[in-house]
Amino acid sequence: MRAIKVAVPAAFLMVGFLLCTTSSYGTQEYMKKEKDKVKNCMTCHGKVEAKENMPKNLTEVGKCYAANDHSLAKCNVPAPK
User: Fold this and answer.
1) CB contact at 8 A, 77 and 61
2) Residues 59/51, Cβ–Cβ less than 8 Å
3) Cα separation of 54 and 57, whole Å?
4) Residue-range domain boundaries for the chain
5) Largest Cα–Cα distance of the chain, in whole Å?
């Protein structure tokens, strides 16, 4: 009985944690790849919003990056401050 009293809340906690965490869609990989050209997320995104809205608020640099197979080689990126 004691094991059930511990296991059930632990299971709920684990399921809740798994449901609340989401994948990062490779943003850290993109930042590492372009680390010499990009200072922060605001280079490609107009403002920070909920994760599902981030692809919709791209700047011109972000749109260029997405259109060129996730490469800044052809994009006019302002120098990091």
Assistant:
1) yes
2) no
3) 6
4) 24-76
5) 65
What pLDDT score does 21 carry?
58
The predicted-structure confidence for 22-81, as pLDDT tens digits, reads as follows 444 546 777 788 877 777 778 888 877 777 777 788 889 889 988 998 888 888 887 765
Rounded Cα distance, 33 and 52, in Å? 22
Threshold 0.70, pTM exceeds: no
Per-position DSSP letters for the chain, written without gaps between them: -HHHHHHHHHHHHHHHHHHH----TTHHHHHHHTTTT--SGGGTBSS---GGGGGGSB-HHHHHHHHTTS--TTS-PPPP-
8 Å CB contact between 73 and 34 = no
Structure tokens belonging to residue 11: 């299971």
Q: Rounded distance, CA 11 to CA 70, Å?
A: 39
